[in-house]
Design brief:
Blueprint (H helix, E strand, L loop, with lengths): L1 H9 L2 H8 L6 H10 L2 E3 L14 E3 L2 E3 L3 E3 L12 H11 L4 E3 L12 E5 L5 H13 L5 E4 L34 H10 L3 E6 L2 H9 L4 E4 L13 H12 L5 E4 L5 H9 L4 E4 L1 H32 L13 E3 L1
Parallel strand pairs: 4-11, 5-6, 6-7, 7-8, 8-9, 9-10, 10-11
Antiparallel strand pairs: 1-12, 2-3
């Protein structure tokens, strides 16, 4: 919250409100963080936690902690170097960036995934995805929960955002699971489906060839009063089992939230708005410090809970209050 308030003081009001915006009354946006507080820890005693490792591996990339930068649009509104600075900070912290299809700048990094929308004109999507693969993206993240863009003003354009695009450049509202195999074949990369909240949709995604699913309600920016990711995660994990990794985003503000998500079965978490606040207040160094802070806080929380490594975390660590 302190980082958000510092960003509020620096950013133009219209930019801050664009980043912070939620759909409708902002109910889902505001409930996201509180939802993680519905669990309590059950620490293990007599564990040697003199050394704690938060390191994990996702699709062949080793990361310092299971905390990634989720896809958010137009980082250039927060900092002149935009996504270039974000990518530099994320890489310096040993993490991964999911680069938005609606980014302000391309990235130069070997630690990134590309977030894709399937547009009505699929040739436009194909061009974006092939370009991302050629530039070194390690995975494709298909955002499936936005058949239409909730209208929110983009300050730089003074307009109503992506819905003002020509029809062929808008999301395809008839998107089906066939897009998963299409993206995978075209890119040669693993495809994760983002926006999953229902177990049956997770199963459809996996059956369609998804290499992973991301439990997400789009930061509360698309449909208001939608269930919090924290409350949807466990059922999705139970349905998917060990077939593919499950990731989650939404309101994750500290190491305790990360540990809760991992205990509920997530392989890693993604953070969105905090990255924008860190970028606005400190550029690449601010982003690096943000991810270092998540890692350090997770390390401390794991030690206090008697957990030596990410592999030690399981469902016995938490109870719903």
């Amino acid at each position: 919250m302190d980082l958000e308030e510092r960003a509020r003081a620096i950013l133009p009001p219209a930019v801050f409100e664009y980043y912070r915006a939620g759909a409708g009354e902002g109910i889902s946006r505001d409930e996201a963080t509180a939802a993680w507080r519905d669990w309590r820890f059950l620490p293990r005693l007599f564990q040697d936690v003199s050394r704690v490792s938060t390191e994990t591996t996702l699709f062949g990339t080793t990361i310092a902690a299971p905390v990634l930068a989720g896809p958010t649009a137009l980082h250039t509104l927060a900092h002149p170097e935009g996504e270039v600075a974000t990518a530099r900070g994320v890489a310096a912290a040993g993490s991964l960036l999911v680069h938005s299809a609606r980014a302000g700048l391309p990235v130069e990094s070997d630690r990134w995934w590309f977030q894709a929308y399937v547009l009505r004109d699929r040739s436009l999507t194909e061009a974006q995805v092939r370009d991302a693969a050629n530039r070194g993206a390690r995975a494709i993240v298909l955002t499936a929960d936005a058949p239409y863009v909730y209208r929110s003003a983009v300050p730089e354009a003074g307009a109503a955002g992506p819905d003002n695009r020509p029809p062929e450049q808008r999301q395809d509202p008839a998107l089906g699971p066939d897009a998963v195999a299409w993206l995978a074949e075209m890119s040669g990369l693993p495809v994760l489906v983002k926006g999953v909240l229902r177990p049956e949709d997770a199963l459809v995604s996996v059956a369609a060839g998804a290499a992973g699913v991301i439990v997400s309600n789009h930061g509360g920016r698309q449909l208001d009063r939608v269930v919090a990711s924290a409350h949807a995660l466990a059922a999705v994990v139970e349905a998917v089992g060990d077939r593919v990794p499950v990731l989650v985003d939404g309101g994750i503000s500290d190491g305790a939230d990360v540990l809760t998500a991992l205990a509920l079965g997530a392989r890693a978490v993604l953070v969105g708005r905090p990255v924008l606040w860190a970028l606005a207040t400190g550029g690449a160094d601010g982003v690096r410090e943000l991810f270092d802070t998540y890692r350090e806080d997770l390390t401390n929380t794991m030690a206090q809970a008697g957990l030596k490594s990410v592999a030690d975390i399981d469902g016995s660590v938490v109870r719903r209050r």
